[in-house]
Design goal:
Neutral endopeptidase, domain 2, 28 helices
Length: 674
């Protein structure tokens, strides 16, 4: 008997044939995500699997045996190569933390181990004692800030209070300040100002239900502060009305999220910003976000109209509303670890150990990741991946220069990006231990959490006028099971965690690694040349017109073909959305094309085909699969294999695929990225 926690064998395997082609598409019709297939079905399953070939379902042909051994169960909607790597990484990280936590060593102050040890037991003790060991101290701590908020009686005092909440607790107030690089000149760092809301302004403006829900949420926080029910309702309503008014000043494209931030961000000089502000001074604006350093000559604002609207409401008439929003900001942060009187959530029955592990990984990611890299990454891995990256860059040079649809100007622009692309592999250099960091561990977990947030914000502000080299691991932790391309820096990040034996084996055949991690690297490189990536030049500057218009038109024509091609694939009776998944589909094709080109002889290419399919195996419930078709920018894993491999002539030669076979794609329809 074959037992599967799936509603149908088609969801387990192919489910991705071209529309009109043969393939099993039966379902139970019950919409249940987990159904055991009984003995009556098991023979059909075995016959189906026995009938799989490279020519009728390459994904199923390579992965059926492995997938049939996988189990989902009541709490998992999917499992596959990537989730298994995630499980491996979680076990490794947890092992590191528990080993340190259970050690009786005397670690140096400020060292990774000392911080992990102290933080772990602070969380563990809090959960195991059900908050009793910090209740009094945390109540005093929170109420000291509540009293400071309530004592505010003027706009000047309001600004001072905002500064204190931002500088001491890193809490958002009316505005939230971030340090970011000027999109059109990444050498310049700017303070970017966002208006802070506790719900989306567009939802409040256009959806009465959302506005009511937002008001009720505000009421609940005010009630925690002792405000009587009727008064809390009125005060929360006043905040919603204030939000309505601010929404009226706001750019509709910003409210809807349809603006291009890189193109539409507004950079204002000190004089220009001062001219906009009527109630705040430029210096008060800096103070409101907790900034205490050298006053910059320019800032960035996503929506000047919104800033004008907020500024117009910073007056005595709206003082109560701003104070109430400060109370909400104070209490909405770390709700699980607030004292009982102010908490809105609990630890939900999770064991002290699991909570301690989760909090350590959240707050001490840098410290834990450095130890992880030391134990699970090595120079041999770095050397091999560096070689692969170099091989892929060289191959991309050939692919780009050999693309007959690109003009010389387009080729020059893309190859310049390629020449300046940097790769961050594994993990960065460990930071220098600072004994003062030991002081970040406060007398209670709540105070420790705020200490870390404050420290992070202060370091961010301190970098405003300091030119620092790019570190890709600031954007993606070495313990992340993923890889990424960052267009504003023109860099590829390949964390240590993704270099797992399931994805990259330092002792395996080079072609096998090419089909797995190699196609991932090639995929990420390709994002430098997609419809978003080409808006940034080799130095990460936003230059949307740099790519020749002729090349942009040619690329759009290719995109339309790709959309139509992927639209023809079906999963569980529903079509893939070729437009939604366009960027990732083209990156899949490009990454695979690059890896296959490097492989060399047919035997090596065969290894690439099969390693690629193996890397993409995933068992997924039908409900999750249906949801992903609507919301995920990636095609289903089965489609990421079966749509890609038949685009390459070698597939037909190696696996003897004929025109009558379901996997066959006519030569004129074999789209390529290059």
């Amino acid at each position: 008997m074959i037992k599967k926690t799936m509603s149908c064998i088609s969801a387990l395997l192919a489910c991705c044939m071209l529309a009109g082609c043969s393939g099993v598409t039966q379902t139970t019709g019950q919409g249940e995500p987990y159904v055991t297939v009984g003995a009556a079905d098991s023979q059909d399953d075995e016959n189906y699997i026995a009938g799989l070939t490279a020519a009728n379902d390459f994904y199923g042909y390579l992965n059926a045996d492995d997938l049939m051994k996988m189990e989902l169960g009541p709490t998992k909607s999917y499992i596959g190569t990537w989730t298994l790597i995630g499980n491996d990484t979680k076990e490794q990280l947890d092992s590191i933390i528990k080993e340190i936590a259970e050690s009786d060593k005397d670690y140096a102050p400020g060292s990774n181990e000392q911080l992990i040890l102290d933080f772990y037991w602070q969380v563990y003790d809090l959960v195991s004692s059900d908050k009793k060991n910090s209740e009094e101290d945390d109540t005093v701590f929170i109420e000291s800030y509540i009293n400071r908020i309530e004592a505010v009686s003027s706009v000047d005092e309001l600004i001072t209070m905002w500064h204190d909440l931002s500088a001491e607790l890193a809490l958002p107030t009316a505005f939230y300040g971030l340090v970011f690089n000027n999109p059109v000149d990444t050498r310049e760092k700017l303070l970017l100002f966002h208006f802070t809301t506790f719900t989306k302004l567009e939802e409040i403006k256009n959806n009465n239900l959302k506005a009511t829900q937002a008001r009720d949420n505000l009421i609940s926080y005010l009630r925690l502060c002792g405000v009587p029910a009727d008064e809390a309702k009125q005060r929360a309503t006043d905040i919603i009305y204030m939000y309505y008014e601010i929404a009226g000043y706001s750019d509709p494209l910003v409210l809807s999220g349809e603006n291009d931030f890189n193109e539409d961000v507004h950079i204002l000089t000190r004089d220009e910003c001062s001219a906009m502000l009527k109630n705040l001074t430029y210096e008060q604006l800096m103070s409101a976000v907790g900034y205490d350093g050298r006053i910059p000559d320019r800032i960035a604002v996503e929506d000047p109209g919104q800033m004008t609207g907020v500024d117009s409401l910073i007056n005595h008439e709206h003082l109560r509303a701003w104070k109430d929003l400060a109370l909400v900001s104070l209490l909405s942060n770390y709700s699980m670890i607030l004292p009982y009187k102010y908490a809105t959530a609990g630890f939900d029955g999770v064991t002290p150990e699991k909570n301690a592990l989760a909090y350590v990984k959240k707050f001490l990611d840098k410290q834990v990741s450095e130890i992880y890299v030391e134990r699970h990454f090595n120079e041999k891995k770095k050397e091999l991946i560096s070689r692969m990256c170099s091989d892929m860059v060289a191959e991309y040079h050939d692919l780009i220069n050999g693309a007959d649809w690109l003009t010389d100007g387009g080729k020059s622009f893309l190859t310049e990006k390629l020449d300046h692309m940097e790769f961050f592999i594994g993990g960065g250099e460990p930071h220098e231990t600072d004994p003062a960091d030991a002081e970040l561990i406060g007398s209670t977990l709540l105070q420790t959490a705020y200490n870390y947030d404050r420290d992070s914000k202060q370091k961010e502000f301190a970098d405003l006028f300091i030119e620092k080299s790019v570190n890709g691991f600031d954007s993606m932790s070495p313990a992340t099971v993923n890889a990424c391309y960052l267009p504003k820096e023109n860099i590829i990040v390949i964390p240590a965690a993704v270099l797992n034996k399931r994805m990259f084996d330092e002792d395996a055949d080079y072609a096998w690694n090419l089909g797995a991690i190699g196609t991932i690297i090639g995929h990420e490189i390709s994002h430098a040349f997609d419809s978003n990536g080409v808006k940034f030049d080799a130095y990460g500057n936003y230059r949307p017109d740099a790519m020749p218009e002729e090349d942009v038109k040619a690329f759009k024509a290719m995109q339309e073909k790709a959309i139509a091609y992927y639209n023809s694939f079906k999963v569980l009776g529903s079509h893939v959305d070729g437009k939604l998944t366009l960027g990732e589909n083209l990156a899949d094709i490009s990454g695979f094309q690059c890896a296959l080109s490097i492989a060399g002889d047919l035997e090596s290419k065969k290894t690439v085909f099969e390693s690629y399919a193996n890397m993409r195996k995933m068992l997924i419930s039908d409900i999750m699969a249906k949801d992903d078709l609507i919301n995920d920018v990636h095609s289903p894993e089965s489609v990421r294999v079966n749509a890609v491999v038949p685009l390459f002539d070698e597939f037909y030669e190696i696996y003897d695929v004929k025109e009558s076979d379901p996997m066959y794609v006519a030569p004129e329809n074999r789209i390529r990225r290059w």
